[in-house]
Amino acid sequence: MLKRYLFFLFWLAVMVVITTMATMYRDGREAMVAEVESRVAAVSLPVVARIDSIYVIPGQTVRKGDPLVKISRPDLDLKIRKAQYGLQLAHMDSLRQVEQYQKTKSKLQLDYEQEVQVLAAKKQVLELEKTALTKEQQLLSKFSSKGVQEGLTIIALKLEQLKDQEQRNLKEWETLSNLNKKSFNTEQRLNAIQIQEELLKLEELKMEKEQLVQYAPFDGTVGPINVELQEITEPHDKLVSIFESKPSLIKAYTKENQTALLRIGQKVKVTATNRVYEINGTIESMGSRVTSYPVKINPNPNGQSYGQEVFVRISPDNNFLKGEKVYVYAVEK
User: Which of 209, 279, 280, 332 is a plausible cystine mate for 267, CB 3.0–4.6 Å?
Assistant: First the structure.
């Protein structure tokens, strides 16, 4: 009875292993063949700089964010001061525009009010003359008042002219005020653009200043150091290289006719070829040309195979070895 029970457990274990193997190991013909690689970061700068400090040595282990080298750029401080001065001038110009606008606005308002007062005084004089002539007309009603009537007609005409002048003054004041405001708004918009440009320039320069100390982009090992203290480097010179401690890049190859089924950001499974282990990954980028497979993962032992490169990013927290051959399966259409 015990033997039967043990025999049953043995075959149950065999079935579990076979099922697991079937789940973990898929047909390589359905997968992209790939190789595990480590990232290599080459620290460089796009400008001329002087090396002030070197904080690491070749072979040293570093953590992400550890300082590597410190540089100096005398031209950068000058550019920052110029940008700050330009920003200050732009703000001062904006204040000057506001002050000029308020002055012009006050002058137009004062001129208009003076004209209103002058016309009001003239109108008052004419009204007084009109009242006097009206009384005179009433007294001379039994006699001839032709001259008085002519005077009243002239006064009425002058009052009408004053009314027209008031309308013209109002329209002129409104027109000049609108032009002043429009000109002010245009100047302010242009000045705001200038201020924004100076702010962006200053922000870019400050970001460049933050790059005076270069830091390790990930956990890794320091490679060759190609510069010395006080050395003047040329733009894009390689200062130091960092090799990733744990491989997190899978370089896969796919047949040309399968490329259309893949996309950047697509989820994939990366499976070991010689043991039960897999991990999730994401397609990070795709090569733009067809290239030959590396010899180590060439699926055709009798000749050279060709395919398009597909780069898959996996978590650095994985159990793969650098250079290990793996399969990559798309799990998301």
Answer: 332
Where is 278: in which H helix or E strand? strand 278-292
Mean pLDDT confidence for 132-160: 75
* Residue 211, pLDDT score: 81
163 neighbors 69 (Cβ within 8 angstroms) = no
Distance CA 209, CA 78 (A): 12
Q: Which residue has the tokens 């400050």?
A: 206
Other Cβ atoms less than 10 A from the Cβ of 145: the count is: 17
Q: Which amino acid would we find at residue 307?
A: G
Neighbours of 117 (CB within 10 A): 10
Q: Which residues contact 244 (CB under 8 A, 6 or more apart)?
A: 38, 39, 40, 41, 218, 219, 220, 316
Distance of CA 241 to CAs 120, 225, 238, Å? 86, 7, 8
The pLDDT tens digits for 249-261 are 889 998 877 777 8
Residue 254 phi/psi, 5-degree rounding, is -125, 155
Question: What whole-number distance in Å separates Cα of residue 129 and Cα of residue 125?
Answer: 6
pTM of the model: 0.49
Spatial separation of the C-alpha atoms in residues 107 and 56, rounded to whole Å: 69
What ranges in the chain are assigned the alpha helix state H? 2-24, 74-139, 146-210
List of E strands, 16-66: 32-37, 40-44, 49-54, 61-62
DSSP 157: H
- Type of residue numbered 120: A
Q: Between residues 5 and 107, which one has the greater pLDDT? A: 107
209-266 pLDDT per residue, tens: 888 899 998 889 999 999 999 988 888 888 999 998 888 888 999 887 777 788 899 9
Looking at residue 246, the DSSP 8-state letter turns out to be: S
Q: Distance between terminal CA atoms of the chain?
A: 51
Are 253 and 307 in contact by the 8 Å Cβ rule? The answer is yes
